[in-house]
Inverse folding.
């Protein structure tokens, strides 16, 4: 399931709902992204997330489909916020549920790495020197690349 | 054709979206970018370094050789920084 929204989310309630009623699920993995107060060397007082409505949901749905293709997942949830956020605020929640931990943990890691390089969101930071657009990090591309290797046959059957 | 601009491409070009009639010689994404650069300093400044410009046609990422058709929605934006 995918949600792109301005408002905050209750991570505990979302995780509980993800597994509710499905007793095949043996594990839930999650990642929560937060607004940091430093961007490079400068203090960040707030950031604004812009996105491309329509394409955002489409890309996230494709990423979710790809995760289901690679791992046996019972449920996937991705919530991404947009608008103005302050340090400590939640930006994103990625959660996966599966019978076993390996699929849930790996799929969660895969989803956040792909989301960061594929989903059309852009951050603008407010700093003492003014407002500036955040530049994409090479590390994020490298993190996504590690998932590009062909999926071993055995992994698909876990 | 509908053109959309996001993040610093939007601020440099000075608008979020516009409707344009493409010259007949513009057939693909590379041709569109070349033509846009001739439309003013905001455009030429924003599109100076194409290594930091991503293009989506009808909400799918495409490369410079992707053909364009009347009625396409074309979006230009920098590498993404969400998550």
């Amino acid at each position: 399931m995918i949600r792109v929204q301005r408002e905050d989310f209750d991570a505990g309630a979302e995780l509980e709902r993800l597994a509710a009623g499905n007793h095949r699920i043996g594990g839930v993995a999650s990642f929560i992204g937060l607004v940091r107060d430093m961007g490079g060397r400068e203090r960040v007082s707030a950031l604004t997330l812009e996105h491309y409505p329509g394409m955002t949901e489409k890309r996230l749905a494709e990423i979710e489909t790809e995760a289901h293709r690679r791992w046996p997942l019972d449920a996937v949830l991705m919530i991404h916020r947009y608008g103005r956020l302050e340090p400590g605020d939640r930006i994103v929640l990625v959660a996966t549920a599966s019978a076993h931990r390996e699929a849930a943990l790996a799929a969660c890691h895969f989803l956040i790495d792909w989301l960061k390089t594929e989903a059309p969101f852009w951050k603008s930071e407010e700093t003492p020197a003014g407002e500036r657009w955040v530049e994409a990090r090479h590390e994020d591309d490298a993190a996504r690349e590690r998932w590009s290797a062909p999926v071993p046959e055995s992994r698909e059957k876990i | 054709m509908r053109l959309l601009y996001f993040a610093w491409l939007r601020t440099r070009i000075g608008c979020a979206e516009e409707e344009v009639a493409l010259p007949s010689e513009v057939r693909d994404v590379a041709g569109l970018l070349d033509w846009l650069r001739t439309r003013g300093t905001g455009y030429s400044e924003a599109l100076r370094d194409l290594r930091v410009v991503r293009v989506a046609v009808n909400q799918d990422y495409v490369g410079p050789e992707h053909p364009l058709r009347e009625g396409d929605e074309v979006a230009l934006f920098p590498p993404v920084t969400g998550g």
Notes: Chain A has one domain: 2-149.
